[in-house]
Amino acid sequence: MTSLITSDLDRTLIYSAAALRLTGPDAMAPRLLCVEVYESKPLSYMTEAAAALLGELAGHAVFVPATTRTREQYARIRLPGPAPRYAICANGGHLLVDGESDRDWQRAVAARLAGECASLAEIRAHLLDAADPAWLLKERVAEDLFAYLVVERPLLPDDWIGELSAWAETKGWTVSLQGRKVYAVPKPLTKSAAVRELVRRTGAERVLAAGDSLLDADLLLAADHAWRPGHGELADTCWAPRHVTALPERGVAAGEEILRRFTATVTEAGHGLTGAARGVDAPAAPSGDQGRTAAAGATPAATATLPASGGAEAQAAP
Description:
Blueprint: E1 3-7, E2 32-38, E3 41-47, H1 48-57, E4 62-65, H2 71-75, E5 86-89, E6 94-97, E7 100-101, H3 103-116, H4 120-130, E8 136-142, E9 146-151, H5 160-170, E10 173-178, E11 181-186, H6 191-202, E12 206-210, H7 217-221, E13 225-228, H8 233-236, E14 244-246, H9 252-267
Parallel strand pairs: 1-4, 1-12, 12-13, 13-14
Antiparallel strand pairs: 2-3, 5-6, 6-7, 8-9, 9-11, 10-11
GO molecular function: hydrolase activity
Organism: Streptomyces spongiicola
Keywords: Hydrolase
């Protein structure tokens, strides 16, 4: 059986120093491997045990990082093991094949965005108009696909996100608060659509996934089985459809446990990588966003329209 394993990165598999959540005596802390450097400083880590597990997965499954990071931000990450042939960046806006963005996929995504939601320019203008300079630090556009704000979280009004989300819903967009970042993402822009395309290309018979945020819900719903850590928005909302395992581990220990579960699942019955997983066909247009197992559980109450968007990474540097 060919397995495709896809995972969110930040705060799922890799962690900034602030997100590690190390517990216990310092002398008992796990050894850490730096997997990202930004402006000559270490930024993201995983445990050495997690690194070893990830390195082993390449022989058993097609591993696909799935991130809301831009291609530039993703390129800073140096994951252990062979470089993944496929990667999903910009929340599904870019499907990388051997490090290059698939142009046919770009065109298919652009067509969906043009036909199914309001323009980025309209959303961005509203974000800037609604934001208060007292707590707005930065405003950014990612890959000309979506926008986000960097805010002083303690100063953000309690009802501001709810009001923005209600407005964005009428425009075909989704809003998510991730750490200090407020993301506005088009509903048609999803990691799960890109995963379905990769299932078609590779002939994968099973999809395993992991993620931590409300914007990862569609990715997890599209999988045959999925895991979420004990931290993050999904944990905060107690979101756990029947095929999603809620892990108790938090911080970098959760990333290690997720990789342990991936490895155990693909090796327990000798389910290795088959030749079909290496083939590449011409891309199809992104499909609808119900996900394979959307009926397996309700989406988080705070974002009733999610599974229409993919994961977000709060720690990635701008």
